[in-house]
Amino acid sequence: MRNNSLKVAASALISMALLLGASSVFAGKLDTVKRRGILHCGVNKMIPGFGFLNPKGEFEGFDVAFCKAIASAVFSDPKKVKYVPLSSSQRFTALQAGEIDVLSRNTTWTVSRDGSVGLDFTVTTFYDGQGVLVKKDLGIQGISELAGATFCTISGTTTEKNITDYFAKINSNFTLLTFEDADGMMSAFRANRCDAATSDRSTLLARQYAEKNPSIYVLLDETISKEPLGPAVGSNDSQWRDVVVWTIYGMLAAEELGVTQKNLEVMKLNKDPVIQRLLGITGTLGKGLGVDNTFVANIIKNVGNYGEVFDRNLGMKSKFKMSRGLNALWTDGGLMYAPPFR
Q1: How confident is the model at residue 21 (pLDDT cuts 50, 70, 90)?
Q2: Helix axes of 238-257 and 306-313: crossing angle, nearest 10 degrees
Q3: What number is the average pLDDT over the span 176-186?
Q4: N or C: which end of the chain has fewer CB within 10 A?
């Protein structure tokens, strides 16, 4: 009788161990982040306006704001973020290794990255394109005039292939010097090691502005590629991807519906059923994602809607004064569009 009892107890322990092991194996990123109590977000630290480590030792910028928004969705607290500064060549390895939960660092969505690099893209937060920065005294008007020239760019980016495709298309030669980060690229460009710097137009504009004498440079009008930039997560975790996706869509929907940081409390009393669902007053949309039902309201309270984040970091309320362009809402002629909150 005693042996039977021991066998039953041992069997129960083994079953429990297997169950716990299975839970550990299949625990998604959302559960991991919740248990840890802090979001690990991979960012840039050298692109003012997007991801930048300021003199106070604080990360700031458009991409950084989405880290805060995700933390607001999961924890209702934008401060629960550990920022992990990453170079272009480090970013995908960090995501694959689980060192970060989300990559929010001016990364272009491409089929090879989606299919072969072990990550899933979420939502395009900024529609960009590759440009070329030259010194004004060269008198260059178009990129084709730079045939035979030397270009500086950042390694591990789409810009290397784009500029190669460009000169192959016009059957011209060029020389490419690559650098680990934007500081290296601009330092070499400043020292005349190359005739031009090439990267995303927004990156070049931000770095031009940061130069001691920005007026000696000119960003050529020509754009040679499509660069849809946005956060990425690890592959095959649809629950976590959904949280990031609907965090961004919530910010877009809030702008479309006129919900801002300033009027949030008033809008909670609005009888519009769409606004009520968006803010979690009615329905269970947040709970369905595994976060608080008021996750969008928490994001707007802590970070603001998409338009507020754009204006504060890149737009008319920032030193860059960028126009919205393709990044305007679809209702204003842009490409920004959130699926229904229903």
Answers
A1: very low
A2: 80
A3: 93
A4: N
pLDDT (tens digit per residue) in 206-259: 899 889 899 999 999 999 999 999 999 999 999 999 999 999 999 999 999 999
End-to-end Cα distance, the chain: 59
For tokens 């604080």, the residue is 58
Residues 6+ apart with CB under 8 A from 12: none
pLDDT at 135 over 80: yes
Q: What is the pairing mode between strands 126-128 and 227-229? A: antiparallel
- Give yes or no for a contact between 312 and 304, defined as CB atoms under 8 angstroms apart: yes
Side-chain-side CA neighbours of residue 212 (13 Å)? 2
Give the tokens for residue 54. 């300021």
Beta bridge partners of 103: 42, 232
**Chain centroid offset of residue 298 CA:** 19
When computed from its CA atoms, the radius of gyration of the chain, rounded to whole angstroms, is: 23
Please say if the pLDDT value at position 128 is more than 90: yes
